[in-house]
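User: Here's a chain of 110 residues. Predict its fold as tokens.
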Amino acid sequence: MDEEAGVGPDITIYTGKSKIRVKVQGMVLPNNPARVRDLDFDYFIIVVVRGLNSVGYFIIERNEVERLIKEGLVKYKKGSEKFGWIPRKVYEKYRIELDDLVNKLREAEQ
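Assistant: Prediction complete.
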């Protein structure tokens, strides 16, 4: 599998005078870790495909990812090949419904 597979594009949401940077790690299979390539985001969204009609959403703010790295819960290598893995048992704590995710991003706009 290609190392870049499943990593979505960077998304920037412009809101008046500010912007929100979002990274999406999509198509994570159940029980697999999510890959975080760099920490250049405000929100990291993980999309886990559980079945043909079942998807789970998980959102982690950058400061929370940084805290998890400091605590050793997320393995992250710095340097020219920046990347890390967020284990399922860690990101499962950040489950969010799609409507709540949209509301959270709207609140961040203000």
